[in-house]
Design goal:
Number of strands: 7
Distance between the termini: 41 Å
Number of helices: 7
Radius of gyration: 18 Å
Largest sheet: 7 strands, antiparallel
Shape: globular
Strand content: 15-25%
Length: about 240
């Protein structure tokens, strides 16, 4: 029997941020290669056989974790594409805690240092990537966005199937993570898991957070949504187009 498809874990971004980054991705990613929405990946491939353990661990963490403010640091070159760098001590801490829980199964890619980013273009000619990078750098002003939870996907050899959206419901921030009761569970053994999930949520449900989806939104999140929506308006006015797309 073939192993279950691997799981991907990404951050659930606030509405304005997702709309802006996904708009950029749709505009500048090769159409025939753009099979997933804009995303901030925390883990690229966790074992599908451990789905129950992965979901239980994520839900336990998200019940304690407050929504996370992310600083958008600007576009940077991927050589054949462009991504936006992000920074957040709280996200770094959460990701380290989860990596400890998932350590028996981390791939080499997921063992590498965590560098949060959102790719808006890839797999194009270097000259096209350089042109877009220069355009976006000229327009860029630093702003912040909000991560409202975590998204779980199943990798289908290209497209991703949405499995669950887990909101951040707690109040813990970076300073609280070292408390004794904040420790993550560790695997009891490498036992195959059997999924007890219902139907997968839709792509819109996964990414489109409603106002009451996450408790405890703060001023930083509202500021981020205002800035990212303003950035989206600027983007529409400029309507960047890369030659050949």
């Amino acid at each position: 029997m073939a192993d279950p498809a691997p799981l991907i874990i990404t951050a659930a971004l606030d509405d304005g941020a997702f709309d802006w980054f996904d708009g950029l991705r749709q505009a500048h990613f090769p159409r025939h290669r753009n099979v997933v929405p804009a995303h901030l990946t925390l883990f690229h491939a966790l074992p599908g056989a451990q789905e129950d353990f992965v979901l239980e661990t994520l839900k336990s963490a998200c019940r304690r974790q407050a929504p996370i403010r992310l600083d958008v640091r600007g576009p940077w070159s991927l050589g054949r594409g462009v991504a936006y760098r992000l920074a957040s001590a709280d996200l770094d801490r959460l990701r380290r805690q989860l990596a400890e829980a998932f350590s028996p199964w981390l791939t080499r890619q997921d063992q590498a240092p965590f560098r949060p980013h959102i790719t808006v273009q890839n797999k194009v000619e270097p000259t096209d990537a350089k042109r877009l990078l220069e355009q976006l750098q000229l327009e860029f002003e630093p702003f912040d966005i909000l991560a409202e939870g975590l998204l779980v996907w199943r990798y289908l050899g290209g497209p991703w199937e949405p499995i669950d959206r887990i909101p951040f419901e707690g109040t813990l921030t970076l300073d609280d993570w070292n408390a004794p009761d904040s420790a993550m569970a560790t695997p009891a053994g490498l036992q195959p898991a059997t999924s007890a999930l219902g139907k997968p949520c839709s792509m819109q449900l996964s990414y489109g957070a409603t106002p009451d989806a996450v408790a405890g939104r703060g001023g930083g999140g509202k500021s981020g949504r205002r800035k990212s929506r303003a950035a989206a308006r600027r983007l529409r006015r400029r309507a960047f187009v890369v030659k050949g797309h």
